[in-house]
Amino acid sequence: METLMGGPLRFYQLVFVSILCAACYSSLPEKIPREPPDNLQMTSNNFQHILSWRAHSDPTVPTYYRVLYSSHSNWKIAKQCSRIVQPFCNLTDDFQVVSDEYSAFVQSFVGTEVFNSSLLYFSPLSETFLGPPEFNLSSCVHCINITIKLPPTHLRKNGKLLSLFDIYNKVDYEITLRTVGEEHKVNS
Ligand SMILES: *[C@@H]1O[C@H](CO)[C@@H](O)[C@H](O)[C@H]1NC(C)=O
Ligand SMILES: *[C@@H]1O[C@H](CO)[C@@H](O)[C@H](O)[C@H]1NC(C)=O
Ligand SMILES: *[C@@H]1O[C@H](CO)[C@@H](O)[C@H](O)[C@H]1NC(C)=O
Ligand SMILES: *[C@@H]1O[C@H](CO)[C@@H](O)[C@H](O)[C@H]1NC(C)=O
């Protein structure tokens, strides 16, 4: 009686266990190789500097990042990026001396391992993108009235936002006027 009942029961248990195992093999995550962050890029407009990078993170392993930068001296930890999970960092408040050349890199902390990215070099004064300006046009007798307003910057000094004039002392722009068959350039 016991063996008659036990036989089929064990068969069902075996089938159940093997189905479970098939499920657990297929759900095992593919192992992602652990590598340092790479592809560092600076997106900088009007002195707002955002560093981004490509993460090689395995979603099953807790990962966080730290951004370090330096101009002449020791490495400093970026104010807003000492322990972040997103793959970008706002360095606007860190790069205060706009004429300096900064180096920056990203450390990733993956479980118990630490990886350093390669260095990115950046000079705010010469590499930030400026613009676009705001302008209004109106007509007057035998003239065109163009009012130009330069974009605000994100750079602060003593808590106050600086203008492009404060930073560069001189800003050049070129105005091109096109009419049918004619073109005039004005430099200012
Ligand atoms: C970056 O930081 C600057 C200065 O704190 C701030 O003005 C700006 O809005 C920030 N930009 C982003 C995208 O968070
Ligand atoms: C990563 O950078 C830190 C800070 O400069 C340094 O102390 C550490 O030795 C570096 N690690 C590797 C593996 O290069
Ligand atoms: C353009 O005109 C609008 C509406 O009058 C005004 O709000 C804006 O400040 C002007 N911009 C410039 C650059 O003068
Ligand atoms: C040009 O526009 C500005 C701002 O609207 C105004 O203050 C100025 O008087 C205008 N000039 C002429 C010549 O119309």
UniProtKB/TrEMBL annotation:
Domain Fibronectin type-III residues, every copy: 16-111
Keyword annotations: Receptor, Signal
Entry protein name: Interferon alpha/beta receptor 2
Organism: Gallus gallus
Boundaries of every Interferon/interleukin receptor domain copy: 129-183
Cross-referenced InterPro entries: FN3_dom, FN3_sf, Ig-like_fold, Interferon/interleukin_rcp_dom, Type-II_Cytokine-TF_Rcpt
Signal peptide (from-to): 1-26
